[in-house]
């Protein structure tokens, strides 16, 4: 499980009696809206056995009815004797036979099949207008509070060098796609190939150049990985080389992310992934 808390304390009530079927597999994933208490049973007077941090991802094994909180009585089962109030989780994403049941992703592709990024106008239309003031170093000062709308996500691959960050900020519409990518990378073990996490949300222009449009990082829909091995403006590391991201490309592509390694010279950016489609939803 993707929990950093332990649920192995003795003397607690088992939840198996609440479930319609055995806890045989993960049924969904979700992330905490804010700090959320984990209890032994679905009631506010039940012992607390852990806490979820804002944005922390969890695997959900089932759902039970319990004490109503804010007119919502649903609780999510995290382990056989560990539950949390479902209202404290962002919308769970269901799994079927270990895979997400999703509508097909719709992207624009180049003749070679690689995914094209969205235009600045498309980004603004889909993710919202950013009012800003450019700074000499290529960063921007947000004037309309855009960054306050972003969600916090704590993926299991963090922390990673060089910054040791434990959370990232992502656009609410992009969050489910990021969650699914992180989940698949973690469950498959492919996140072992991610040596460094080099940034996600950043209010700036593309290439820190004030003459260019806003970066997709400013919208909270992009992430940089293994930067030292995939420098901006240089060819990315090849499959088999240290720092190569080739093995994780299909996971990002399945969610509609364009890869900077496919950008034309001199703009190649092999560290970079950005969402390049309308976020899709479960069937």
TrEMBL record:
Domain Peptidase M15C: 210-275
Coiled coil regions, renumbered to chain: none
MF (Gene Ontology): peptidase activity
InterPro entries in alphabetical order: Peptidase_M15C, Zn_M74/Hedgehog-like
Gene3D superfamilies: 3.30.1380.10
Protein name: Peptidase M15C domain-containing protein
Top-rank lineage group of the source organism: Bacteria
